[in-house]
Amino acid sequence: MRLAVIPARGGSKRIPRKNIRPFCGRPMIAWSIEAALQSGCFQQVVVSTDDDEIADVARAWGAGVPFKRPGTLADDHTATLPVVTHAIEWYHHHGDTPTHICCVYATAPFIRSEDLQTGFSLLEREGCDYVFPVTSYPFPVQRAIRITQDGRVEMFNPEHFYTRSQDLEEAYHDAGQFYWGLSEAWLKKRPIFSPVATPLVLPRYRVQDIDTLEDWERAERMFEALREK
């Protein structure tokens, strides 16, 4: 069985009720649910939550909520791996055996069903444990600077002060949308950011981290611009 797990706890702090806050006309989580359902990749799309209101919204948009996530996996410090592992183990306990699991973030409105399809194809073709989308940094990370305690600046890598940007290796970061993985990899808690993973490269205009209200406003403007195109 191929399973989509959408983690969505209720206690978000920086943007309260972030998972179900309206984003471009619908609850934020609805965009992730819709992409997962439309991809045709999954036998089941479920939301892992500790929150009754989020569960109701998830069901209204077509996701299943077959279990309630325990509070021990719903605090500010809970990582993705144990949440997905909990979902897999719940299915094992109830007689099902998920083979391929995709963790889909609830706050990823730029996710596309075709990217989920491509990710699954890569997972099968490449013989890896995980596939997840990445995008490139717009500026060379080797030339990054920090602001010191006395209000001055210094480079993280001063040896690259005179290196031309085009001569520096391109760097990428997690797009924060989804992670395809084999059940065994999730259960054994193999690290995702490692040689066992294959990247799916996305253009930067389809990636936006949403952690602050400023991020939210920027994301809505980008999203509307893409829909108009």
Automatic annotation (TrEMBL):
GO MF term list:
N-acylneuraminate cytidylyltransferase activity
Q: Which SUPFAM superfamilies match?
A: Nucleotide-diphospho-sugar transferases
Q: Which InterPro entries match?
A: CMP-NeuNAc_synthase, Cytidylyl_trans, Nucleotide-diphossugar_trans, PseF
Identify the domain of life: Bacteria
Q: Which UniProt keywords apply?
A: Nucleotidyltransferase, Transferase
Q: Which Pfam families match?
A: CTP_transf_3
NCBIfam families per the UniProt record, alphabetical: PseF
What is the name listed in the Swiss-Prot or TrEMBL entry for this protein? Acylneuraminate cytidylyltransferase
Q: Please report the organism this UniProt entry assigns to the protein.
A: Mesorhizobium alhagi CCNWXJ12-2
